[in-house]
Amino acid sequence: MWGQVSSFSLTPLRTFKNLSNGYFGIGELMGNTLKVGTAGRFSSRYGVGIRKRILAVEVKQNQASTCPFCGFSKIRREAAGLFNCKKCDARFTGGAYEPQTLIGKTILKMVTQKSFLAGAEELIKSKESSFSDIEREVEKSLASDSNKSKEDKE
Length: 154
What we know:
It contains three helices and five strands, in the order E-E-H-E-E-E-H-H. It is an alpha+beta fold. The protein has a three-stranded antiparallel sheet, with no helix packed on it. A two-stranded antiparallel ribbon has the order 1-2. The chain starts with 15 loop residues before the first strand and ends with a helix.
């Protein structure tokens, strides 16, 4: 920690800076955090995997995103899943850390496409027809079972 003795005075290797808040801190102690980014505040604690996950979440959370109502990038996260546009004062829900999740975007595209609506109607019709066919078969089997039980009793 202390440098070489020169003429009976010790000189520190690291200099203390007077920070703007009035406290003294060790200057030039922390290097660049090019790889770890904001997860560098955890140093070597908690493991690499968890720090990488936190970094990925924080990158998503701090990205500028546009408001789905007015189109301006003035969205702020109020709580987990709640977002507020500062321009048009619209409040809406989204993912925990991002205003729109990948699944939400996919569903929105599917709903807005007309081909999806036509496909959904066909799917509903096919389910109804198959369901009614199954009901008919069950009724027939119940009727035949009841007829067999009547014949066995006689």
